[in-house]
Amino acid sequence: MTILTIRPRAEEVAGQPILRPLPSAQCRSVGPFVFFDHMLEADYAPGSGMDVRQHPHIGLSTLTYLFEGELQHKDSLGSDQRVRPGDVSWMTAGRGVAHVERTPADLVASGSRAHGLQVWLALPRELEGCEPSYNHYSAASLPQQESLGVRIRLIAGNGFCLESPVPVLSPTLYADLQLETGATLTIPSEHPQRALYLVDGEALLDDQPLEPRSMVVLPEGVEYVLSACSGCQLVMIGGAPLDGPRRMNWNFVASSPDLIEQARSRWGAGDWPVVPGETSRIELPA
Questions:
Q1: Torsion over CA: 57, 62, 67, 71 (sign)
Q2: Which residue among 33, 88, 119, 120 has its CA within the 20 to 30 Å range from the CA of 23?
Q3: What is the per-residue DSSP string for 25-57?
Q4: Which element (helix H / strand E) includes 107?
Q5: Is the whole-model pTM more than 0.85?
Q6: Phi and psi dihedrals of 104, rounded to 5?
């Protein structure tokens, strides 16, 4: 069966360079994952940092997971949380939430380095209008296993005989895989939709080389053997297929165009929950 390779497009968000393989014309979603941003390694000089101003979401959960650096998450629920490497910052937008993500003030003063991932997971249709919520999980709270040169940390969902405490709302797999040179790992078929993203290093899937910083979407029901040609890091995403197509417009995800238009109108009119202490916001694009 054919493996689909998605070469991400380069983007920039608030001065932070990113690679974005999802969504793409070739693949709109993998399980509940409708959006995947790799925040590339970036060094910020003293006096600078990442600053994503107040902006809205509906119909999704956002998950931020850092390899290096730190971010301050603030939202319209009153959350104010410092996110460190290996932590999970999990926000469910439901019917509407606003948030801010920026480099903490002390790291702006000293200078810092950023590297990580942010993904969006579409909510099941019956939960699109749920109450928004925020949860933070420290790196130490995430389950992991290590054997024969392979370390697996379950970021969200379940897989590899592990289950994350992150309260996903549909069958989900999100794992951080680290392999030493020469190590191998069987990629099971326990979730119907799966994809791998090679963050760093060199690896083979069966006998095929994986392209660095590209996403491979795997056919359903087929097991593979992942082999590390060098020390490498990958993330694996997956889960059950979405319960119908999703529309994406700016920061909004929904099963119907009416929900998108309502959200655009509300944000444009200023009829939206506000992040405490924040006055600056990202305006609705044309």
A1: positive
A2: 88
A3: SS-S-BTTEEEEEEEEEEEE-TT---EEEEEEE
A4: helix 105-110
A5: yes
A6: -60, 150
